[in-house]
């Protein structure tokens, strides 16, 4: 028995219910089918939704908590009046892209592209997995970067402009940390010498590392890049068109522009941006692999995974809805062909023991000419059990 034939109880019950429903108006069986599907989707996804809400709230709480780290910064050489480390003395010019706008663009642009593409792909589970994957990457990336900000942090290039330090106001009673007027030539101080009364502005000026803008941009847009590569089969078994290659590079260009714009207004140092980009990229790759059968393997990376059915890449993808989960219509990709059985084709109710099933693979080719390099040995598990249409296929038909 193949791994993705094991979980028959739950999916079998769902398929049996759905196979008996008709397709009438929204208040009839079709409406009840949609309601039934929504209930099943909630049962499947509610834990993830709850976890995302909890982690999102935790990120906000951590971000608003007091800083755990106390950093020193240099002000002047003793007696000379020269400013040390002028890279922290840039003027505060404001943000080209605000943190809120950065988060919105990093989430909504990928989601919008995914939804627009569904007018052609028409796969509910692909849209579901892709949107959840974008949210996974953004939420996990945000959690990582706010924890690092709070525990590590770092000065923004405009820190001294926000701090407005005045060492003369320092008294023994105000030296709370004991880390002021210390170090070589006693030039190192803490925020105890800052004259700016805005505590939130001071905190923001000390949480430069890593860049939250870069984390969000690369989490959302790298995920979109991976998804577009899978749906357009840019890096696959055939030479693709140049314009598809240029198109999938657009999300990477967008992420790079959003991240590097922070160097124009001196909101971040280069290493802040590099660290945030690395975090976002890592979360995008991890989230994509959780939601899809592969990241780079062009044979499977377009296939959205499901909760109750294991995908066995050693056998190959089951026939059915998955062949539609691509955008291109080329070399057999994207052609919708249902699995057939010899017994059914010959007019018999069931296959005899000597008959072996034949069916179409994920891109519409026959099993004997599969682009996956292997002959698939069985039809869709749900169909093999006698259920007319699997839950995922029926859901896609409603899109």
From TrEMBL:
Keywords: Membrane, Transmembrane, Transmembrane helix
UniProt-listed CDD domains: PAP2_containing_1_like (cd03390)
Keyword Iron-sulfur attributed: no
Domain of life: Eukaryota
Pfam families per UniProt: PAP2
Compositional bias annotation for Polar residues: 18-29, 353-369
SMART domains: acidPPc
Family statement drawn from the similarity comment of this UniProt entry: Belongs to the PA-phosphatase related phosphoesterase family.
Protein name, UniProt field: Phosphatidic acid phosphatase type 2/haloperoxidase
């Amino acid at each position: 028995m193949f791994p993705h034939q094991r979980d028959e109880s739950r999916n079998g019950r769902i398929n049996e219910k759905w196979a008996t429903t008709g397709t009438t108006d929204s208040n009839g069986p079709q409406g009840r089918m949609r309601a039934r599907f929504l209930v099943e989707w909630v049962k499947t996804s509610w834990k993830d939704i709850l976890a995302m809400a909890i982690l999102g709230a935790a990120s906000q709480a951590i971000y608003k908590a007091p800083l755990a780290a106390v950093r020193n910064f240099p002000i002047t050489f003793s007696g000379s009046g020269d400013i040390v480390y002028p890279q922290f003395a840039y003027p505060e010019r404001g943000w080209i892209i605000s943190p809120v706008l950065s988060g919105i663009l990093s989430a909504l642009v990928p989601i919008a592209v995914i939804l627009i593409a569904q007018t052609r792909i028409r796969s509910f589970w692909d849209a579901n997995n892709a949107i959840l994957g974008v949210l996974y990457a953004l939420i996990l990336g945000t959690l990582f970067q706010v924890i690092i900000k709070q525990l590590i942090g770092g000065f923004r290039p405009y820190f001294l402009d926000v701090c407005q330090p005045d060492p003369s106001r320092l008294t023994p009673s105000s030296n709370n940390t004991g880390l002021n007027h210390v170090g070589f030539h006693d030039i190192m101080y803490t925020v105890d010498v800052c004259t700016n009364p805005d505590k939130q502005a001071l905190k923001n000026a000390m949480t430069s590392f890593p860049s939250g803008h870069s984390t969000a941009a690369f989490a959302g847009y790298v995920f979109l890049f991976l998804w577009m590569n899978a749906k357009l089969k840019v890096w696959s078994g055939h030479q693709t068109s140049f314009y598809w290659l240029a198109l999938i590079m657009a999300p990477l260009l967008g992420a790079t522009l959003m991240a590097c714009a922070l160097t124009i207004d001196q909101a971040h140092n280069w290493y802040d941006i590099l660290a945030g980009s690395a975090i976002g990229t890592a979360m995008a790759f991890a989230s994509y692999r959780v939601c899809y059968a592969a990241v780079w393997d062009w044979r499977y990376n377009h296939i959205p995974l499901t909760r109750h059915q294991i995908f066995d890449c050693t056998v190959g993808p089951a026939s059915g809805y998955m062949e539609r989960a691509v955008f291109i219509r080329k070399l057999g990709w994207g052609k919708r062909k249902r699995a057939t059985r010899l017994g059914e084709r010959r007019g018999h109710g069931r296959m005899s023991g000597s008959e072996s099933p034949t069916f179409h693979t994920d891109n519409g080719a026959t099993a004997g000419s599969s682009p996956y390099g292997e002959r698939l040995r069985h039809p869709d598990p749900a169909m093999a059990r006698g259920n007319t249409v699997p839950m995922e296929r029926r859901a896609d038909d409603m899109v």
